[in-house]
Structures are given as structure tokens and as C-alpha cells.
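Moderator note: this is an archived Q&A kept for reference. The question asked for a predicted structure of one protein chain; the sequence and the answer are reproduced below.
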Amino acid sequence: MDKVFLISGIFSLAIILRRVGAVREKHVAMLVRYVLAVSLPCLTLMTISTLDLGNAHFDIAVIAWAVMLAGAGTAYLVGKATSLEGARLRVFMLVTTFPNTGFLGYPFAFALFGSTGLSYAVIYDQMGMFPIFVSLGFLIAGGRESLRHAVRFPPLIALLAALALNGAGYTIAGPTAQFLQAVGWTTLPLTIFIIGYRVRLKALRDYKPLVWCLILRMLVLPAVLVAILHVLGKSGTPYQVTLMESAMPPALTTSILALQYRLDNDLAVACISVGTIISMIAFSIALFFQ
């Protein structure tokens, strides 16, 4: 229960501070830049560079690729069937395809499965979600020209550096490792705070694509994955984390892309907000019965 109170407390605190005006958008924008450019790359560097690549469950990343590619195709078909076009279709595809595997998935994985679960969540996020996000995600949002921005995404650079260090057999140790580890761990509380601040229920102006997004993102795709894992005989903590990550609500970074490429950000915020609240409730129930 301590983990429920901690995470829900940080989430609620962010909402309260926003409502009373103590924290403003410019402050949270700085936190987002810090997480994306500093703490998340540090967490990635320390987690991936120390993995035993020979036994790292890379099938988690393969599952992530399959889930997101299936999500993108399904979102396009459902979006077209529900008369979404242009910027709204692009946003619908983004929020349906990409789960919040980092900002929300990391603290949830750590709370439910401990440090081992967090390492699997990092694999899903960094090796599974990020390669698809910085390629297909940027392509959906802004076309082929946007791919130039993707190669400068700090977490991707950190991932490539971590893989290079791991492959070379170099281990970060001593004060440097302690510093990077400490900075990396600030990712967990800050991401919950950012999510709480960004929740906006007043953005609910069109419920139809919102409902379709959350049904596909948080129910249909995870249900299909459950069936596939059962058929393949996959079980245990790595695949429990994989399933949890696949069922996460829409990624916060999809809203950032929507703003950057002048898409329908209200729809993105609505899907993220409602999905996050649903996941917080489900997470609290899961921890209560754990």
C-alpha cells in the first residue's frame, strides 16, 4: 500500500499544484526537458550497459515491435472507418499505437515487480518502443522530413551509447556510476508528477475517437497479446511486465509530437488524460491485491 500512496500522492500533488497555480506550464516543460535529455538517458545508460545481453530477453523488444506495428495498422483502419482524416487521423494513430512505457511504465513496473521488473520495462521501452517511435512515430506525425529530428532524440542516443559500451565490455563504475544511477532514479517520481500535471479532462470535446483509442490501446491489443503468449507458452515476470507495458495508456510524448507538428493536440491530451486515470485506478487495485 505504501507504493500506492506514494505514486497516487505524487500524481494528486501535481494536479493540486496546477489548480492553485503554484506550478505552471513553463516549470513542467523544464521538467520534461530534464527527463528526456538528462535523467532518462542516465537511467537507460546504467540499465542497458549492465545487462547480460546474452540473456536479456530480447524477445520482449520483438513483442513490443509487433504490438505497436499491429496497433498502427489497426488504428489506421479504425480511424478511416470512423471518418477521421488529416491531423486527427495522425493523432489517433499516434495515441493508439504508442503506450506510455516510460513515464508511467517505469514506476508501475518497479512498484509491481521491483528492480528486476524495471529492467524488463527498460528493455521494452528502450529497445522496443523507442526504435518504432523515432521512426514510425515521427513519420506519422510529420512525414519523412521529421525523421531528421528523430536521430537527435537524447534517449535514443543514450541507448546506442549503452549498447556500444555493453558490446565493448566496458563497465561504468565508481563515483560516475553512482552519480548516473542517482540522476536516473529521479526519472520515476518526476514522470508521475508530469503525467499528473498534464491531465486535462476539459479536453474531452469528442468522445468517439477517445473511446476507440482506449479500447484498442488498453483492451484489444493486450488481449491479443495474452492469447499469443498463451499459445507460445511464455510466462513469468518478463512477460508479465511485457503485457503490462503493452496495456499502458497513450504515451505522453505523443502529445509533444502533436504540438510540434501542429496536429490535434486536444484529442491527444484527452486520450492521455482519461487513459492515465484509468490506469492509475487499475494499478492501485493491482497493488492492493498483490
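Archived answer notes: The first helix runs from residue 2 to 19.
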